[in-house]
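Hi everyone, sorry if this is the wrong subforum. Our group has a chain we'd like a structural model of before ordering constructs, and none of us has done structure prediction before. Sequence below.
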Amino acid sequence: MATTKEIKNHINSVKDTQKITNAMYLIAANKLRKAKRELDMTRPFFTALQSEIKRIFRIEEEVENRYFYPVTGEHELPGSYGYLVITADKGLAGSYNQNVIKETMRLMKQHEDPKLFVVGEYGRHYFSSHNIPIEQSFLYTAQNPTISRARVISQILLEQFNEGKLSKIFVIYTDMKNAINSQINATRLLPFHRADFVVPESHEKKVATPFEFYPSVSTVLDNVVPGYVTGFIYSALVDSFCSEQNARMNAMDAASRNAQELLDELTVKYNHIRQSTITQEITEVSAGAKNMKRKAEKK
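Answer:
Right subforum, don't worry. Here is the predicted structure as tokens:
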């Protein structure tokens, strides 16, 4: 049976752990608010780019471009598939990292020649330890998702796509739906399906003056699409970062509550043992006093 000193040391240890989990919860909450604020500041620009692409397809429906499936529709493309996998640099975030890895492994089994582009130390360590080749790893991006880092990633992916080294590019990331639920998204980044940019007739705005594209529609798309790809990757990075912080908040909150439950149990146990010790000491003193009284009466 544990002594009061051992239980007291255990209580102090749990309290120290609880302080750490509470601090990590507050840090994650602060990072989450900051990331959301930065995303809200940059989102309008990329929303405008998407609107411009929609406008182009509204005017020139038959335009052909390397970043889009042909007018004939979607079909299988030969060549390597690229997978941009966004994980965290650290653990202690529940099943956040494991879910992304699981979805990535599922997709990779569907194609013979996958190429991995990994964001996050957790993903890099997992694939390296399982002897899965990594085309490129982007360090320090998971904990600091900025538009400049997203631009570097998009340039590398677009370069390989333009050179024909990649026929399709997928982005696997976590999207935070709300404070409770997060969803793993495996989105095909390139090539785009033109249906993604088709505006329903009920929402279509009539164009009074026809647009002129110089030198051509395809050239305009070649200049607009890279910016849109950068915006999508940046949004995926921030969404994943927010999901990671939200998962860490939930994990730390659960750890703090479990620590409090353990503290309550240990406190009850400590008080019980302490009360038993006091009762035993009182009993021993009382018995000793009675024994001395009996001896005095005999004398």
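For your construct planning: The first strand starts at residue 81 and ends at 86. The chain has a mean pLDDT of 78.
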